[in-house]
Input
Amino acid sequence: MPRSKNIVASKKRRKKYLKYARGFYGAKKRCYTIAKNKVEKSWLNSYIGRKNKKKFYRKLWIQRINAYVRKFNISYSKFIFKLKKKKIDLNRKIIAYYFSENKNKDLINQLLN
Output
């Protein structure tokens, strides 16, 4: 009796990788093994990119807060220390948003004093 190869499942698996590789150049979108390698590498890079994006935005918020706080002759670290001391639990994203837009003057003055 001949060996059963289950061509339906293997073809479906290959088509899945080739579908993900649709925008790639040359053999990277046509040849299954190359496409599989490139798709898996792109998934890895997208995972790393999402982590780097979080780092980038945190650094950006810290720079914005520091730039605004320096106008009042306070360093960033002393400002954060004051917030912790007052038990104000605002994250850096919100603080940077208020400082960059000059949204709520009363809130800004409370944070700085």
